[in-house]
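We close this part of the discussion by returning to an individual protein. Part of our work consisted of pairing the sequence of a single chain with a tokenised description of its backbone. What the numbers capture is local backbone geometry rather than side-chain detail. The amino acid sequence and the backbone structure tokens for this protein are reproduced below.
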Amino acid sequence: MGCTSSSKPNKPNLTMEQKRLVADSWKELHIDLERIGMLMFMGIFDTHPETRRFFEFANPSDDTEVDIRNRQRLREHGLRFMNLVKKLLAFVHDNDRFDDMLFDLGRRHKDYNADVDMINIFGEQFIISIRPTLKHSWDPNVEEAWTRLFEYIAYMMKLGIIDDKN
């Protein structure tokens, strides 16, 4: 994890103020995690249909029963994603632990054959999905804080995905 190369982009920076803004706005989001998670994944599948191939539950079926099960799995996966964000935010001030968690998350996604080029899509869609819930507190600083957070998450996850020690 410690080696650097001239072709690797610089590690994004997340300021203390941005961490505070993210933590404060999360307090408004935590009551609606399931809905936001589901909206996020539905948005990803609508705007980036190529991502459907990574999620068995994302493909429509002619079988109503299968569609109902898939919708439930979509809801569960969205909630799992949101709970992961919650867990990560609990350690956002512990830089070493935060980095280790993200790196390990990337390594686990390598096992799912995650496409490193698609990691950023999740942060972009997450921000689109939380904006309506945060409408009263949303401003350019809050948007920048969430953007920086997901750039940081993507950077560390990508390191884990491309790690050859796995």
